[in-house]
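User: Quick one: structure for sequence A, then sequence B.

Assistant: Sequence A:
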Amino acid sequence: MNGIASKLKNEFEKGLSREGDDIMVKMLITYVHSLPDGTEKGDFLALDLGGSNFRVLLISTKLSSYMCYLFTCIYFVYLFIRCFFFCCCFLLLLLLFLFCFLFIYLIL
């Protein structure tokens, strides 16, 4: 079991680095600077937009000092909404590219 954990850790480290073409696990850096230490108070909201589901999670710690309450909802994302979102992202990237191209062209 330790051998599997060691290999998995090595693959994670390779995935976080930007070097090499033999990366099996592609990963993105999340820039989380610290982990919770248990002294947090209040409401925390987590949103996850996946391929076909939109998950909403509310974590409340202000109702009790010894317990936390979780409220979760899962919504199905219809295909036409996913296609619309993809098209909007594509158009936004295209406009950004054109803006950068014109900016460079006008400066040079």
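Sequence B:
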Amino acid sequence: MSDSNKIEVGDMVQVNMDAAGMNFIRGDAEVLHVPQATGDSWHFKTSEGVIIYTNEPITIYLRSKAEDKPGFDMVSCSQCGCGFGPGENGYSHCHDHQGQKVIED
């Protein structure tokens, strides 16, 4: 079980540089590695897929915990192939997703 007050691998965060107060990651980033010792660095993956390593002074804002994220980035219907965005499971038949908003045909 994770600690809801601790930033951990898999969490989504917003990262700001302390000195300039500027945002150097646009949008949220996923935490890939949390420093464990002096000299170790944070590892982040941006929404564009860019990997960033930093041990510079930064402020990190927790946006969501890893367990809050859906299991899949895109779920779909096996029968028609339509996509429905993030979710825990897809659909086997079209009648299972009646009324759901289609994201991708």
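The chain has two domains: 12-66, 70-105. Residues 11 and 66 are 4 Å apart (CA to CA).

User: Thanks, that's what I needed.
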